[in-house]
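Supplementary Methods. Inverse-folding protocol.

Structures were first reduced to a discrete structure-token string of length 431. This string, shown here, constituted the complete conditioning input.
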């Protein structure tokens, strides 16, 4: 085991770090904290967690040697997924370098007892700052193992925001000035069309046009295989894959409806298993479920949930029903952005089935009601969307009403309420 670790460390000594582009997420401040914590960087696979660390490491290495900053990718095929590897890691590092000031561990959660080992190192190696990444919610603040509670801080990384996307694409415009500039708006809107279709996974954003779909297909296969099927030891692989395809082609779902559909397709899968498979998808950050807003907990559990995905590229490539549906892509993009902004939100449905896409809360109070619509030029669509907003506004006692649109940018007074219409690109850029 020591020989393998020595080989890994020798590789690190001579490794040339890749070129990186700075994200809007700055983790350098965590290295200067007065109270020492384990910094856990979580998020969907391939959303940029590793490159975020490597960018920070490059900054650290400007003033430190490789002996003081050690990075190890625990998904390296040379590393056996055994607790013994972790047990021997620190003693071997000390033989090579002495104890580093910074230790970065990429994806350690696949190794048994990783959290207990990390707790021990945190307690015994007071000198080292520990940074850990994870592609599973099992490493997140909601599900972190008991032994690490109170000892870590979580940074959740999403695919690129639209502002970051423009930066990665080399679109060099003053965003505030672009509002008043025809050429600036053209560049931004051209970028929005690509962002809407192919999403914000960094490698996909930087790849050539003809390679994007191939990369997305590869990511999809890897997540399904490694982060769902293998990690959770799924026995009915075909059933799980069929369920995922159903969800990609659904706006909302219930366990009973999914069970009935799976049964009609001749898949032998019970309701409990359907629920488990969905929890696996959510654990990998691939899918998110949005519950209905209700002050009645029982109603919240009984009503169907809405299904959203971490990146629009998966809907574009794998949803036969919604791949060309701009409204669906708009709504999914807004959902992910609300998650990125750490909002707490639900959807709302009246007894007459009128719907508001997002009910955004501040604590227990409804702070904003939001619709997403790409067809506000159509009188019937506009009437339907605003009617639902006004009804929810009255019921939930909220007057902050907004509609995210394709190009409509103005305010309107209806029945004593002000409705703000905001183009998606301006909302994404927070202009």
């Amino acid at each position: 085991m020591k020989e393998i670790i020595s080989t890994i460390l020798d590789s690190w000594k001579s490794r040339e770090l890749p070129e990186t582009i700075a994200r809007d997420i700055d983790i350098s401040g965590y290295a200067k904290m007065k109270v020492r914590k384990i910094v856990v960087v979580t998020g969907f696979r391939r959303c940029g967690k590793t490159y975020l660390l490597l960018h920070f490491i490059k900054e650290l290495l400007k003033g430190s040697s490789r002996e003081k900053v050690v990075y190890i990718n625990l998904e390296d095929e040379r590393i056996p997924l055994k607790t013994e590897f972790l047990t021997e890691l620190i003693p071997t590092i000390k033989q090579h370098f002495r104890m580093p000031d910074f230790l970065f561990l990429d994806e350690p959660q696949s190794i048994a007892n990783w959290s207990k080992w990390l707790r021990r190192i945190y307690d015994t190696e007071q000198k080292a700052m520990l940074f850990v990444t994870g592609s599973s919610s099992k490493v997140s603040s909601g599900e972190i193992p008991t032994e690490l509670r109170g000892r870590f801080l979580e940074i959740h990384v999403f695919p690129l925001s639209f502002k970051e996307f423009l930066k990665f694409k080399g679109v060099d415009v003053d965003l505030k000035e672009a509002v008043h500039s025809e050429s600036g708006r053209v560049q931004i809107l051209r970028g929005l069309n690509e962002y809407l279709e192919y999403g914000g996974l960094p490698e996909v954003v930087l790849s050539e046009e003809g390679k994007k779909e191939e990369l997305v297909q590869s990511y999809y296969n890897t997540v399904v295989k490694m982060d769902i099927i293998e990690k959770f030891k799924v026995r009915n692989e075909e059933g799980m894959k069929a369920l995922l395809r159903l969800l990609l082609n659904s706006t909302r779902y219930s366990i009973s409806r999914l069970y009935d559909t799976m049964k009609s397709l001749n898949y032998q899968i019970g309701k409990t298993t359907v629920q488990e498979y969905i929890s696996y998808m959510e654990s990998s950050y691939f899918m998110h479920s949005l519950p209905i807003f209700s002050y009645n907990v029982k109603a919240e559990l009984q009503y169907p949930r809405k299904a959203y995905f971490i990146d629009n590229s998966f809907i574009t490539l794998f949803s036969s029903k919604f791949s060309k549906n701009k409204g669906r892509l708009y709504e999914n993009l807004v959902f992910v952005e609300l998650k990125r902004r750490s909002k707490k939100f639900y959807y709302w449905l009246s007894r007459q089935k009128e719907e508001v896409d997002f009910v955004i809360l501040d604590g227990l109070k409804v702070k904003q009601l939001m619709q997403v619509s790409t067809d506000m030029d159509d009188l019937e669509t506009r009437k339907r969307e605003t009617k639902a907003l006004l009804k929810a506004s009255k019921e939930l006692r909220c007057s902050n009403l907004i509609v995210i649109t394709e190009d409509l940018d103005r305010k309107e007074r209806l029945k004593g309420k002000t409705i703000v219409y905001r183009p998606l690109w301006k909302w994404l850029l927070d202009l």
